[in-house]
Structures are given as C-alpha cells and as structure tokens.
C-alpha cells in the first residue's frame, strides 16, 4: 500500500465519538433530574395552591436511592455497604419526619400554601447537602446547594413575574412592529429593474 492510499484511508475515517463526554453527562443525569423535579414541585405548588405531600416524600426517597447507588461502587466490603445503607436510611428518615412535621395541619395553618413548597424544598436541599458532605460526594453536595439557591430564586421570580410579563409584551410589540415595517416596504419587481437597465 502506498503512502497516498494510507493518507486517503486516514482522511476518510469518521471522527471517533467522544465517549468520555457522553459518559460524564450520563453520570450527571440523576442529579439534573432530581433538581428539575424539585423545582417542578415548587412551581406546581405555587400554581395549584395545594401542597404535594406524597411528591416530596417520593423525591426524598429518590435522592436517598441516588446517594446509595452512586456511592455503592466505591464502597468495599459487606460491612461498609451495610453501613452506607443504614446511615443513608436514618438520614433520610429524619428528613422525611421533619417534612411531615411541616405538613401537620396545625403547622400548615401557620404557613401559606406557596410557602409550604419552599420550606419543603429548603428541607430537601439541606438534607441533600448534608448527605453529600457525609458521603464526600461533590455532585450530591452541589445538588443540595442548587436546590437551596433555587428557593430565593423562585420567590424572586414569583415577585417579579409582573415585570417579566411586561418585558415579554414589550419584546413581542417590538417584534411585531419590526415585522410590519419589513412588510410595508415597497418591493421592486425583477421586470422593473430590467426595464430600468435597458433604458
């Protein structure tokens, strides 16, 4: 085989996919899904004005499972694996009990319904962050921090939703004005340009 054939074969090989990036995104998927579900729960509570009791409990249990599953491959020995399971179980049982204390009807009367969703998200964020610290997991700690940051962000968005609506109306108005102005410009037909060139 000549050098030219080798160069042709090298040039025609398709670029190899980046398995490292796809694997990294696949590993981060459970954390992103948990964050999206938490924010969706608060948004639904704010819109429907009804606390989602079972939803928050399910989300806490799901994050508990994520904590155990992500640390399981790094845990060596049956004793260490059992310790991982029962410490995470106790941790998340404490979080669930605290959430249910907030949802007791006597406490519920003191909080407006939208605030209940934010309080539950705050408890979930604290539980997630502390689980990440105890497991020495940067991803789980970051998930807890992201949930915690989402609490003031959601309350700020709720307060400033009127300004966002005004901004959206302004942008739509400017877009329509620009579009109408483009349509109202006189257009020169191709036959008119040919007759002007001939003259």
UniProtKB/TrEMBL annotation:
UniProt KW keywords: Membrane, Transmembrane, Transmembrane helix
Keyword Membrane assigned: yes
Positions of transmembrane segments: 29-47, 53-72, 84-103, 115-133, 140-157, 163-180
Name of protein: Blr7325 protein
Organism field: Bradyrhizobium diazoefficiens (strain JCM 10833 / BCRC 13528 / IAM 13628 / NBRC 14792 / USDA 110)
Lineage, broadest ranks: Bacteria, Pseudomonadati, Pseudomonadota, Alphaproteobacteria, Hyphomicrobiales
């Amino acid at each position: 085989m000549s050098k030219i054939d080798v160069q042709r074969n090298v040039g025609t090989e398709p670029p190899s996919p980046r398995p490292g990036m796809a694997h990294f995104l696949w590993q981060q998927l459970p954390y992103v899904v948990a964050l999206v579900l938490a924010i969706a729960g608060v948004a639904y509570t704010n819109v429907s004005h009804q606390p989602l009791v079972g939803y928050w409990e399910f989300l806490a249990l799901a994050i508990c499972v994520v904590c155990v599953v992500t640390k399981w491959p790094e845990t060596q020995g049956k004793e260490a694996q059992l310790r991982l399971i029962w410490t995470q179980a106790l941790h998340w049982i404490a979080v669930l009990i605290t959430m249910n204390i907030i949802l007791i009807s006597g406490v519920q009367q003191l909080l407006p319904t939208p605030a209940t969703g934010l309080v539950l998200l705050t408890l979930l964020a604290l539980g997630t962050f502390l689980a990440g610290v105890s497991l020495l997991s940067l991803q789980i700690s970051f998930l807890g921090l992201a949930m915690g940051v989402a609490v003031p962000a959601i309350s700020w968005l709720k307060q400033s939703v009127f300004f966002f609506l005004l901004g959206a109306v302004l942008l739509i108005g400017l877009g329509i004005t620009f579009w109408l102005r483009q349509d109202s410009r006189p257009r020169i037909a191709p036959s008119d340009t040919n007759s002007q060139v001939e003259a």
